[in-house]
Amino acid sequence: MEPNIPNIIFIFVLAIFVGIEVISKVPSMLHTPLMSGTNAIHGIILFGGILVLADAATPLARTLGFVAVVFGSANVFGGFMVTDRMLQMFKKKKK
Amino acid sequence: MSSTIAYIIIGVSVLFIIGIKLLASPKSARIGNLIAAGGMLIALLTLHKPSGDYVWSQGWTFNYTLIAIGTVIGLIIGAVGAYRVKMTAMPQMVALFNGLGGGAAALVATLEFLRGAHSLEGINAFIAGSMLFATLIGSLSFSGSAIAYLKLEGKFEKPHTFPGQNILNGLILLVIIGLCGFLTLNASSGNATMAFIVMFCLALFFGIAMVMPIGGADMPVVISLLNSFTGLAVAADGFAINNLAMVVAGTLVGSSGTLLTLLMCKAMNRPVTNVLFGAFGSSGGAGAAAGAVAGTVKPIQADEAALLLAYAQRVVIVPGYGMAVAQAQHQVRELSEELGKRGVEVQFAIHPVAGRMPGHMNVLLAEANVPYDQLIEMEQINPSMDRVDVCLVIGANDVVNPAAREDKSSPIYGMPIIEADRCKATIVMKRSMAAGFAGIENHLFYKDNTRMLFGDAKASLNALVAAVKAG
What is the span of the domain harbouring residue B359? Predict the structure, then answer.
């Protein structure tokens, strides 16, 4: 299926502004967890890996696709888990 | 694309946006992370091919076995990395995961490009351009993150520079862009594969060349920048394989990551160009070190330091990376409790970039159960520093270096610092007289009212706690 290029660019441009808008007021103590959390979100590249590996037809494509899936999977799972572990530290508020 | 898939993608995008939004506030950050993770899970379970076929209902082929094995291996790597790592090594972990994501983005684009280039109909220039962009940025992010990881692990953390480095980097970048231009227009030509491989290798090299000259202290900024790069690479992959969820997620990370990078630089009062191309310490460091240091270093023993602290009215503790390395946060809390029992007012002054990542000290002290109303940000505490009786600096160096205020030739000139030198007395706990991460001399150590308590932070603190209890 041919992608609808103007539509995709439209979504791309809007997403740029949303991304800037949502973090415009963030305290410096949250910079690292935020970096880590968005790091996990780009782990969605795992799906790209799954899609190319599902259709891989040559040994080379299978190898590269497999590596992409391992990398993407480590990015997405590790990313969310390490962020959660960082943020756990913030919840305790003993007086 | 059927409308059902479109609605799912809209829902998933909203979850990502809400997730990031909640991550930007301390109270809701954890739930924000879980919401984003939930969005990811939904997207995974409803993943469709560009053709519109549901991925998980296709016949189970060998490729699917590979997908399952690969995902599980990645899951194990991620889980072990995330839960085994010490709190001090968290920034490295983020760098590592980011690099892996960048590598995956580059590989996905590579596969799609090679397949498109060899297909009969070829690929259109927009799609080819997206793939090349994803390959370039993804591989650059991969190698750059690897270097950032190694620097944070303490391997070659000093800046590596040579004359003409920026010019050489610029030339490499020009060659890469030239190759990308050629490939965009001639994706199906005979030597496209060769040109592609050269481009890939140059991009990997460029990532290394870009990060090597940057000092270890600036790694959080670099990781944040590479994080936004990976986001853009993922968005470009989304263009290439026509997956809108990837476009949205990647773009959100790309734009919020760019803003976050700028905010981090703002916290250090340095323009981002200075971080990336300033080659910290290449000339200014030597100059500052050579600058005459007036005064002598006056050591102090734990007993005497404990007396100073116990009879003070107001004590401010400035934690730094040394506290993190020594894992001394629990001893710090114990000391502050002991002093509190004696009626001493204890506060913690938190520099925005103390440690190896912003928020590092908050995380460690929260782990040790220090109530977070005792943690005061730099801007709030500085105006009252001259009314502080004793300032206890634990393993912090550059963030309390008065050169940032006084010495125009210093590479950290202009960076806001915690003004420990204005307190009535300052006790600096340090392992040795070695320079801090920025590699420059600290005049605070030589001031008349500064005393140095040498030794491992944990051992020194234990001695202090014992002495305060006894006194």
Answer: 294-470
